[in-house]
Amino acid sequence: TGFNKTQGFSYPYNQPSTSTTTIVLPHHGSQFSYNVMASRDSEDTGSGSGASGLVHHQHQNSQTSSMTAAVGAAGGGAGSGGGMPVGAVAAGSSQAAGAGEAAGRVSNVQRIQQKKAQVRAWPRDKKLEKLAIYSSCRADENCRCNGWKNPTPPAHPARPDTPQPAAPPSQPCRSCTHTLGDHVSHLESAGDDDLDRLLSIVVDVENLFICVHREEDPDTKQVYSYLFRRLRKCILQVSPPTVEGPLGTPPFERPSIFKGVTNFVLHKFNHLQQKDFQMMSDLAKMFLHCLNHWRLETPSARRAHTTVEESSAYKVNYTRWLCFSYVPQLCDSLPHHETTTIFGRTFLRAVFHTLRKQLLDKFRAEKDKMPAEKKLLLLNHFPRFLSMLEEEVYSNTSPIWDTDYRPQLPPHLHNQAAEREERSEKEMICQRA
Q: Is the pTM for the entire model greater than 0.70?
């Protein structure tokens, strides 16, 4: 299911570039060096950048991916199996989930944000020098140089926390011989906020550059390469980052997973007392949170046990998930969407069995570390909850996936809704008076 070239750039599944680039990543304590390397032609996958604090998550070690948090309130620790890192799991407590996620979310997101904060603190001339590396020469219309290249790059990369003097605007480009100023003349009147937004994209481009060259899975590598080129193009054109084309626009299916699971709770448990209903509602929130922080299996990992048609559909959704949910958690210049709000039943059917198995395996492995109340919730109630949800996910007649479905609220929620409506009417009367 290849995507064709459109609007001057390649979509995922086109043959990736075979060019290679050697990247040196010397460590200084817990930080990575931030090297300015020569930028390359727009058709190349390389950009001219060093690492800016990202350690790529290999699929073989995806459980330690710092994109995700520890399971926290629902058991903590690293997951087990395929692509299973999950986020902080709330067992009826959003505060516990937040604490677990804060404790477990490590390194990468923090390093990237620290790097972006450092870049925002640079003087204006240093910011323009950095942007010149990613900006086409505007000296004349015949110049095809797409990025300023330092004629005298440093022999040894400097420490990331050591400020380096900016090159003067008159410094010639090693490639086209036009000046640094000729590459950023279009940014002379730009405000600091505009420069900072572009520099945030630059940091994301450099992170994706590392991902492209370190990723081993071919499908994932192609998506990283596409996003790299897309963001690179946004800097060249000074345009907002977007993901366009045959991937479509979120949401991809209605009702969403979030809506379907919410309908499920109301459909199956609206007869329960408030305490029991709240427990089921909390289990639903935990399930949705896990799915939002779950690392999907790659298409190649599923190919052996799925049909050609299923593999093709999964590959499209995997690409969408990478572009709209997973990568934007690291590269925040891209718009981010929660997995459970942009995908629906088709997506959930494809991942449910794997997600269920990995979650339950994890909780069983962690049971000795759990307090009794949590053990009862996760090892007794949660499996039954998942079994009931599974029936509705794979049933072709389940009402919870009907876009017109209007579930009956349980009595306590119905009363609360009536009270809110009554208060609202009283407030409107008072305002009119």
A: yes
Residue-wise pLDDT tens digits, 348-366:
999 999 999 999 999 999 9
Whole-angstrom CA distances from 254 to 96, 130, 260, 346 are: 31, 43, 9, 10
Average pLDDT, the chain: 77
Q: Residues 167-199, buried b or exposed e (16+ Cβ, 10 A)? A: bebebbbebbebbbbbbbbebeebeeeebbbbb
> In whole angstroms, how far apart are CA 391 and each of 205, 246, 299?
43, 32, 25
Q: Tell me how many degrees the CA angle 349-352-357 measures, rounded to the nearest 5.
A: 155
